[in-house]
Write a structure and sequence with these properties.
alpha/beta, 8-stranded mixed β-sheet, two-stranded antiparallel ribbon, 6 helices, about 25% helix, globular, binds cytidine-5'-triphosphate, binds calcium ion, ligase, decarboxylase, EC 6.3.2.5
Length: about 230
């Protein structure tokens, strides 16, 4: 990683990154979301910027500061629908897309205009609608960028991650074991295993998210037209 910091091996590459959770409103005071902090996505954006890339950064509500740099454009989103709109509008114009966001899989079918009252049992009657799968949608596009997804798993991590890689037509999936979610969500460290459609590509071992980000970039570089980068 230290050697990588000194070279601009992603110079002028256009990179799209999604990060953080999404938030799905239930009523004027409540929402459903998840434990993602956005730290991994921010680490990936910083690593890309250091290495010369031009970054589109689409994020949900974050618990970390956004990178400040002349080569990053940040898009502040909240719901999965909004994140999908923005991300899909950018996807065809980038060389590489890394979808790191923890997108809520479902949203309430309707957002209550008034605060839900506990006496009305409204909490038991929420209907859910599936959100669009942003990663899978990009994977199905004709001129898709080099596509990297993430997978949060609590069991059968490798098998599930390889299956996601196939189903979403990704080049790589970075698998995270979130069984002990406090060890990943919000943490500065994680243990990522990178897979493709067939195999484990590399076990990155447990390390901080900055070093993990640089290792993921090293893998992208070695796999995506090594001569181009
Ligand atoms: N993803 C996405 N849009 C969604 C859901 C997920 O783009 N609506 C992306 C994530 O950003 C991540 C990858 O898909 O890169 C895998 O997310 P994950 O939640 O692990 O997988 P799912 O396909 O949603 O399956 P499940 O949650 O049931 O394991
Ligand atoms: Ca999911």
């Amino acid at each position: 990683a230290v050697a990588a910091l000194s070279k601009k091996d992603f110079l002028n590459k256009k990179v799209l990154i999604t990060a953080g959770p999404t938030q799905e409103d239930l009523d004027p005071v409540r929402f459903i979301s998840n434990k993602s902090s956005g730290k991994m996505g921010v680490a990936l954006a910083r690593a890309m910027l250091e290495r010369g890339a031009i970054v589109d950064f689409v994020h949900g509500p974050l618990q970390v500061e956004l990178p400040k740099h002349s080569n990053i454009q940040c898009y502040d989103t909240k719901s999965a629908n909004k994140m999908a709109d923005v991300t899909l509008s950018l996807a065809s114009s980038v060389d590489i897309a890394i979808l790191c966001a923890a997108v809520c899989d479902f949203r309430p079918q309707k957002i209550f205009a008034q605060k839900m009252k506990k006496e009305q049992n409204s909490f038991e009657n929420i209907s859910w609608e599936k959100n669009i799968d942003i990663l899978r949608t990009i994977g199905g596009q004709k001129n898709k960028p080099f596509l990297v997804g993430f997978a949060a798993e609590t069991s059968n991590m490798i098998e599930n991650a390889i299956e996601k890689c196939i189903n979403k037509n990704c080049d790589l999936i970075c698998a995270n074991n979130v069984a002990e979610s406090s060890a990943v969500f919000g943490s500065t460290k994680n243990h990522i295993v990178v897979v493709n459609k067939n195999n484990v590509v590399k076990d990155l071992k447990e390390q901080n998210k900055t070093d993990a980000a640089h290792e993921i970039l090293d893998l992208i570089k070695s796999l995506k037209c090594p001569t181009q980068l």
